[in-house]
Amino acid sequence: MIRLEHIGIAVKNLEDSNELFEQLLGRTHYKTEEVALEHVKTAFFKIGESKVELLEATAPESAIAKYVEKRGEGLHHVAFEVEDIVAEMERLKKEGFRLLSEQPKRGADNKLVCFVHPKSANGVLVELCQEIVE
Ligand code: CO
Hints:
The protein is an alpha+beta fold.
């Protein structure tokens, strides 16, 4: 793994949270993006080498909706950038980690992503992400 790419925070209302995080971080978000497949709207803030990703559910079946309903708003996942996501998924599987998908998926921010089940990572939902180069 190369670096901490971003942390993901589940929120109820993206507009309200954008304002809050603009005050907190002292800067504006640089983009918003909807990921229809995952039923989420996202906003990104740059903070040094890393980012903060805010996520709001756009449908009740969204993982973010379920998370917020069960645990309230808050830290949802930690994302690490990897060079080769398929190789990293293989490596982690061999190490005994449980992955949430067999194949990488297209995520927000021009990334291929895959999640590691929190049960196999001390309760932390870990995202692997690789920049898509086109
Ligand atoms: Co993320």
